[in-house]
Amino acid sequence: MLLDRTEPLIHALIFFCGWSAIFCVTAIFVFIFKEAAPIVPRLDWGTFFFSLDWNPVPGGEEPAYGALGLLVGTFSVTILGMLIAVPIGLSAAVYISEFAGPKIKESFKIIIELLAAIPSIVWGFIGLVVLSPIIQKLPGVYVGTNLLNGAIIIAFMAVPLIVSISEDALRAVPDSYREGAMALGARKWEIVYRVLFPAAKNGLLAACMLGVGRAVGETMAVLLATGNANNIPHALTDPVKTMTATIASEFGDAEFGGDHYRVLFVIGVLLFIITCAINVTSDIIVKGIRKKHG
Amino acid sequence: MTTTSRTKFNYSAIAVILLIAAACLVSCGKRQTAGQTIQNKGSDTLVQVAQAWAEQYSKVKEGVSVQVAGGGSGQGVKGLIDGTVQIANSSRAIKDQEREQIRQKHGKEVIEFIVGFDGIAVYTHKENPLTTISVEELRKIYADGGSYEEWNQVSAEMEGPIIRASRNNSSGTFVFFREAVCGKGNEFKKTGMVTQSGSKEVVDFIATTEKAIGYSGMGYKTEEVNWLAVSAAKGGQGYEPTLKNVQDGTYPIARPLFLYTVGKPEGAAREYIEWIVSEEGQKIVEAEGFVSLTPGQMQEQRASLD
Question: Least CB-CB distance to A144: which of B170, B197, B208?
Fold first, then answer.
């Protein structure tokens, strides 16, 4: 009786929750695009994409919005961070799922979940206070908060995500695959490399893509750890300025509704488009693989 | 269940409405008893000091309320010209053209009061042997087109790259330092400056970075950093950013902070300015991180009221 009456209610609730997610994403996109839109036809896009002259509050010249340094900053931190995080994350996932005993497996999983729960501002502080003096000891390095520092911090933040998703993907491979390979005389390493990796490709790729998404959008940690200098890095230890850190540090002082404010929203739209593109490509790749195998 | 919660909701709604009504009544009542209102507008650099003055003054003097607004020094002076503002705050001296406009429109002279100073210190790491730097050398380090990239260009005994620390591009310190060092209408170097989000962060960064140079308020000095004596020209006498050097104007990267009125202020405005240039008003200037007037300067400013 009770079930009969509550069923439609719960149904409606779940329906509402599901659609609210879609509604929120659309609303966010509409909001940031609406704030950015007035400057879109007026903005000098050549300068925006190809100039290093980011000077929104000029002394005498016209304001300049050259975001090349910020774009390069974001991409360099992301790429270097992923070069560090993906091998570590995948190896850790392989170890936890294939090599570790049940006790170690459980405690490792708990520790990794704890790592994932550390707020990004704390990671930023670790970059600023712990990592920066260490990096400064390297020969020829003068500024401790730089590209390498930001990338290491981003890697630390992305590793738990990559480990837990790729571990799930590896565990989803049926045991019959492992047993079959073992019966053919494959060694443990060969099983991982030749059997499990191809079988779990989709999940592993998704894990890496989510890591990239996390790195591109990260704000507080890179704001503290990268040094915020607008330029094209020539060395791994040059300070860089990212898109997210620029929005975070300049938004509060930008005149409401002014050009600077709108350009910061343009950067926000760009970030949104980049993360969307990453998700869609990974989706297409994953589906393509599925089709080939199916 | 539903009925009780609904009644509860009604009660709280009524309570909220009553509270708002009471608050309105109280504030309206206050406004009615306030005899006079002084309109005070201008510099964003000064807006926090101005608000602190207004707040403290409302405790000292009942019946006078000071309405403070920012918007920039130009906005304050514009308010004087339009007659909507009694006291304008400005972090720059009034222009001759603005003076003339006021003379024509109101038939009175602009009266200037100096109510404090703002000094920006140039900091280096404590291992850095440099003690004095000229404004011209700072321009070569910071300004767009400046040639200094290595410390050995500044002094033969030093080496390594110059790591330039700077502030957010919308901070008042950033704008003031740029104008004082690079010259009016000039820009900072476009790339490579390490941006810090606050005055303290600049000093912390320099404390941990041996090759760094940076600028920040003089109140932020710590044991970990040196500040440089600054000379107007290379080889000239350098002055450290001390209270005394800022007060007597020998330290070059400092500016006086002004109030302007149209004609000699009278009544409430006069009393307010008299209080600002008194010891009590000057204490607030110091509390907000600026340099206060010397007792002699206080006397001088008070004298220009008469």
Answer: B208
Axis crossing angle, helix B47-60 with helix B279-287, rounded to the nearest 10? 140
For residue range B245-283, what is the model confidence (pLDDT) as tens digits? 998 889 999 988 899 999 999 889 999 999 999 999 999
CA distance B213 to chain A (A): 12
* Residue A229 contacts B, CB cutoff 8 Å: yes
Q: Supply the pLDDT for residue A71.
A: 96
Tell if the pTM clears 0.80, that is, is over it.
Answer: no
CA distance B253 to B117: 11
- Residue B210 shares a structural domain with residue B277: no
**Cα A151 to the center of its chain, rounded Å:** 11
Determine, for residues A144 and B190 on separate chains, whether the beta-carbon distance falls below 8 Å. no
The C-alpha angle B72, B90, B86, rounded to 5 degrees, equals 95
Q: Where are the domains of chain A?
A: 2-39, 68-293
Average pLDDT over residues B4-19: 53
Which residues make beta-bridge pairs with A164? none
- pLDDT value of position B206: 96
Chain B residues with CB under 8 Å of A67 CB are: none
Indicate whether B148 belongs to any domain.
Answer: yes
> Could you state, in chain order, the average pLDDT of each consecutive group of 10 residues for chain A (294 residues)?
76 92 91 93 93 89 93 96 96 94 92 92 94 93 94 95 92 93 92 92 88 90 93 94 93 81 94 89 72 55
Paired with B132 in beta bridges are B229
Q: What is the pLDDT of residue A83?
A: 97
| Residues of B whose CB is below 8 A from A232 | 191
Q: Which of residues 105-144 of A touch B (CB under 8 A)?
A: 132-133, 136, 142-144
Paired with B260 in beta bridges are B88, B112
Residues in chain A: 294
Residue A226: closest C-alpha in chain B: B194
Residue B58: exposed, middle, or buried by beta-carbon count in 10 A (0-12, 13-18, 19+)? middle
Q: Which residue of A has its CA nearest to B197?
A: A249
Last residue of a domain, one of B199, B229, B247: B247
Q: Best mutation site among A50, A61, A129, A230 for testing chain B: the one with the most B CBs within 10 Å?
A: A230
pLDDT of residue B207: 95
The confidence band for B171, taking pLDDT boundaries of 50, 70 and 90, is confident
CATH of A68-293, one of 1.50.10.10, 1.10.3720.10, 1.20.1290.10, 3.40.50.360: 1.10.3720.10
